[in-house]
Amino acid sequence: MRLIDDEGGQLGLVLTDEALRRAKEAGMDLVEVAPDAQPPVCKVMDYGKFKYEQKKKAHQAKSKQKITVLKELRLRPKTEEHDLLVKVKKAKEFLEEGDRVQVNMLFKGREMAHIDVGKSLLERFAVEVADLGKVERPAILEGRRMTLLLAPLK
Length: 154
Hints:
By secondary structure, the protein is α/β, with parallel strands linked by helices. The chain contains four helices and eight strands; from the N terminus they run E-E-H-E-E-H-E-H-E-H-E-E. A hairpin with a 5-residue loop joins strand 1 and strand 2.
């Protein structure tokens, strides 16, 4: 087998007994790194420390990743100007944090006759947040609900 010492230096081709003896002398373990290679590659290392460092790296990588969340805002066709601006402000906060925003326009009763009012309100909403987010899915009517999906620009 090809042997690598604990500092990464090549020791060349060595018999298995010799490699085990060198690992014991160093007070470490003999670990097979590349079993498919010809000849197989083994390394003298502290296996417990190696496993600990791998676990630590995996934990650190997991903590740095950003999980995108879908935030939801609800509007009605009769939503007034100030209320709309409050919702726009909240949507901008969500987009700055890197979250996607789904804006739902809910229609009740006779409001279904004025779908164009709801669509224009959603289009205006998209224009208001255009500096921080882009339209991922335009306003689509599904039953009594019209949805608009916004994604952050970054």
